[in-house]
Every structure is written in C-alpha cells, then in structure tokens.
Amino acid sequence: MNASLDRSLGLIPNLDQFLGSDLPVTSPVDGSVLATLRIDTAAEIDAKIAKSQEAFHAWREVPGPIRGELVRRYGEKLRSVKEELARLVTLECGKILEEGRGEVQEMIDICDFAVGLSRQLYGLTIASERPNHIMQENWLPLGPVGIISAFNFPVAVWAWNSALGLVCGDSCLWKPSEKTPLTALACQALLEDVIKDFPQAPAGLSQVIIGALDAGKQLVDDPRVPLISATGSTRMGKDVGQRVAARFGRSLLELGGNNAMIITPSADLGIAIPSILFGAVGTAGQRCTSTRRVIVHRSLFDQVYNTLATAYGQIWESKIGSPLESTTLVGPLIDEAAFDLMQAAIERIRPVAAEVLGGERVDRPGVYVRPALVKLSADSRLIDNETFAPLTYVIPYDTLEEALAIHNAVPQGLSSAIMTTDVREAEYFKRHSDCGIANVNIGTSGAEIGGAFGGEKETGGGRESGSDSWKAYMRRQTSTTYFGYQRPALAQGIRFDID
Ligand code: NAD
After folding, report:
1. How many CB atoms lie within 10 A of CB 350?
2. DSSP-derived secondary structure letter, 61
3. Catalytic residue at 435?
4. Whole-angstrom Cα distance, residue 3 to residue 8?
5. Residues near ligand 1 with C-beta < 6 Å?
6. Of 111, 168, 187, 288, which one is the catalytic site residue?
7. Which of 255, 288, 305 is the endpoint of a domain?
C-alpha cells in the first residue's frame, strides 16, 4: 500500500502545511493512519469566509464563458491525474478502485457539463401587460457557496457543486467529511494548480475548511454564505436545514435514502439479479442510492430470494477484500461505528425475519463484513431507518398497488426502481413512486450527471448536478424596463394622477 499511498498523496504537494495533531485520518483499507491533520480554528474559518466573499465580488464580474474556461481546464487536469486521485479515494473511503475511477470520471463529466452551461445561463423575456414595457428574468451570481460533503462520495459531490457554482459566478467553501479530508486537499491543490495560470480567478475562489461538526455549524450559521449545499445523513440535514432557515439562507439538502426495487412477475431476472447485487453490495452498501429493500411478487419470491442467497454465498467466498485488488467487489465499511449500526439493525429485525443471512465480521485488518440478506414475510416499520451498510431486505407483495404502498411507506424518497417488461406497470410505477429518481429495468444506484439528482421527503428535496439544478447557485431577478416617451402606465390599470 505504501507505494500507491506515496503516489496518491503526491497530489497534495503542500500537505505539510496541513499536518498537526487534531484529526487522524485512517484508511478503511487496513485501519492504518494516512496522516494527522490540524483542524481550522473558528478565527481561521471566519477569515476564509471573509476571503470567499471578497473573491465572489471579483469573480462575479468575470464573464460566464471565461468562468467556464477555468472549469474546462480543471476537467483536463482531472483527466491527467484520474488514476492517482481514484487511488486516493479508495485509500481514504474504501470503495473499490473501479468505483474510485468512476467517481473521478463523474467529476470530469460534471466539468464538461458546466463548461457548456457557462454559455447557457439563460433567463427569460416576458410579455408585459403595459405598452412599451419589457420584462426580463435575469439569473445573477449568488455569493459564496458552503459545501458540506459526506465520506462516501468524497470528491464527486464537491465537483457537482463547485463546477456549477464556479460557472454561475460563485466562490466556494468546502467542508469535507472529517473522515475524508485528504481527497479534498488533493482536489483543492489540483484546482490551485490550474488557477495559478488563470489571472481572472481571484485568491480564495475555492477554499477547504478542515474540521468536523463545529466547523460545519460555523459555516452553516454564517449569513455571508447565502447557500449551504449539504450532503449527508437525515440527522445532519434536519439540523442544517433549520439553522440555515433561521437566518433566511438557502439550503440544498441531499440526505439519506431507503431505496427499493420492485420485481414484477414479468421481470427479466437476467437483468434484475445483477442490478440488485450491484445496488445492494456495491460500495459495501455505502451509497445513498444503495438498494435497501427488494419488493418481489409472491410468484417469484422464492426464486429471487434463493438466487440472491446463492450469489451472496459466492460473494462471501471470494469477492470481499482489499478495494485495491481488481478481483474485489466488496471492500470495507468506513469504520467500527458503521459495523455496530449494521449489527444493531440486524438484531432489531431478527425476531420478525423469516431468515437472516450474513452480517458476520470478516477476519482481517479494517472493518470488513459479509453482506447481509434478510427474508421478510411482510413489510415492517423496523426497516424505516437507513442502515449505511450492505444490509438488504426482501419483501413479498401480491398486487402492484400494494408494492407501491410498501415502497412509499418509508420516510425517505431518494431512488427507486422497477423490473418489468410490461409498459403499463412501468408507467404506473413512474407515476406513483414518491422518489426523486424512478428507474425502469435499471437499479437504484449509479446515476448519470445529466439528470437532476436528489430526493423527496427526508432525503431533503434538493437537486444537484444536471438539468436546471444550476438555478440553485444563482439568484433570480425580475426586471421591467420602460422604453416609451409618455408617462408610463401602472400595472393592473391603476390610475395615480397627481395633476
Ligand atoms: P454525516 O451526516 O455524518 O456527515 C456528512 C457531513 O456533514 C460531514 O461533513 C459532517 O462533518 C457534516 N455534519 C454533520 N452534522 C452536521 C451539522 N449538524 N452541521 C453541519 N455539518 C454537519 O454523513 P456521512 O456518514 O458522512 O455520510 C453518509 C450519509 O450521507 C448517508 O445518510 C447517505 O445516504 C448520505 N448521502 C446522501 C447523498 C445524496 O446525494 N442524497 C449522497 C451521499 C451520501
């Protein structure tokens, strides 16, 4: 591991500046300490916010397409270091290298998307009810964007926010997860390398804040930061949403999921089974979009459950291991606390479960676990909480209406899927799933950047990445211009004559 560590930490040439004794960063790969960092003091965070505000005032004057050029160059930079950055992602958050590469690719993709967008920040021209008037809707830069990110997508979520924020004319302040600050320092160093040859980019355009809860709260409470884009647990989102609302700020929340896939009698199981497996055990069940519940028509229930049980056996046998090995499909959990939460969830459901497979600790350094599969004979409110680990429940249903009722019964609303070859079932599902994402013959995890990403209910309601998510990073202005020579008419025909 040392050689690959050297190569990846080489992405942070100024690492010495950040070393200290406050925050040990451990690798879930084997539990070793990668580095120990100093956390930012409250005064340092205050200074970073002030600098970000200054940077915003300069950056907002730079034309959109020029701002896009900075992001284009950053995308090029990422292409040149894709492998090293993917390795650092793997070392720091434990996802398999193939998925680490996918995460960096997602950063590149959103950069490309943002470059195109930098010439398409379109407003509207609106017909006025008054003669010689024109109404416009303008989109203007918003201000410093506070980005709080989770450990499981340590770089892509920042890229979704910062690539769009930067082309929209905003400055960015990033408070990464305290479990994955090194990838953040690497992304920042790479951006600074691009910025040094880009004279229009002001100092402080993008900054990283190293810290945990207190640092996050300071950013959240500061009125100089008009938008807080926060990704993480529902618990975090509840606190952040209320604090930001209390100061009339804007929040964009991307919170937990409890995602389900419905398998109808017409499903092609050759498509369904691999999709369930990737969604359930991929990323060791540590995606917000991981498949937590599989709702199977009773006619196929035993067949689907038994096929999954066999596949799980194969995974336990040979596919759990170091995420740096190309044969591994299931890497480690992030830490001991994640293992404890998984065990607690298994013990909670055990008394009502028809069968529980897996969940045992694998004997090797780090926190490795056998993905668990739970057979239920009926839906249960005991599975309403998101367990951020490879723990999947299989539940029977009789009618599609019942399947959707089970599907929508949880408090979260992020991602959903149906496996069917019946177009009527597919359309019914899309209309009745209460999630932000509703897939047909595609699993719950693995979104592309082109679509708006996010979910409803306790998932927070935010949308990031594609479609018109950029509007969250700008402020909307309605402007009416009069271009006549007489005294202009008032709206709604109101008369207000002084003489
Ligand atoms: P977490 O909530 O523990 O932490 C996320 C971030 O929030 C960290 O940077 C943390 O320091 C910060 N934070 C926590 N409480 C805070 C507070 N009160 N004020 C300000 N900042 C605070 O989440 P995690 O364990 O890192 O990540 C896993 C969770 O994230 C899961 O619930 C997962 O579903 C969710 N997630 C959601 C999405 C999405 O797009 N919907 C994407 C990735 C992860």
Report:
1. 13
2. T
3. no
4. 9
5. 148-153, 175, 177-178, 212-213, 216-217, 220, 231-233, 236, 239-240, 254-257, 288, 386, 388, 414, 459
6. 288
7. 255
What is the rounded CA–CA span in Å between residue 72 and residue 112?
7
417: left (phi over 0), alpha (psi -120 to 50) or beta: beta
Asked if 17 and 63 sit in the same domain, the reply is: yes
Cα separation of 231 and 62, whole Å? 29
**Ligand 1: centre distance to CA 276 (Å):** 24
| Strand ranges for 241-364 from DSSP E | 250-254, 259-263, 291-297, 355-357, 361-362
Give the distance, in angstroms, between the CA of residue 59 and the centroid of all CA atoms in the same chain.
26
- Could you give the CA distance from residue 295 to residue 372 in angstroms, rounded to a whole number? 16
Q: Report yes or no on 330 lying in a domain.
A: yes
Q: State the Cα–Cα distance between residues 40 and 139, nearest whole angstrom.
A: 34
pLDDT of residue 2: 62
Residue owning the nearest CA to atom 8 of ligand 1: 177
pTM across the whole model: 0.97
Helix (H, G, I), strand (E, B) or coil at 265: coil
Q: Amino acid letter at 458?
A: E
Asked if residue 288 and residue 172 are part of one domain, the reply reads no
Residue 217's domain comprises 2-255
From residue 373, give the alpha-carbon distance in Å to each of 255, 305, 322, 350, 489: 24, 9, 22, 11, 70
**Max Cα distance, the chain (Å):** 92
Which residue type, as a one-letter code, is found at position 77?
A: K
CATH number of the domain to which 129 belongs: 3.40.605.10
How many whole angstroms separate alpha carbon 63 and alpha carbon 61? 6
Q: List, for residues 319-365, the tens digit of each pLDDT value.
A: 999 999 999 999 999 999 999 999 999 999 999 999 999 999 999 99
Q: What CATH number did the domain enclosing 418 receive? A: 3.40.309.10
Look up 111 and say whether it is catalytic.
no
Give the distance (Å) from ligand 1 centre to CA of residue 84: 25
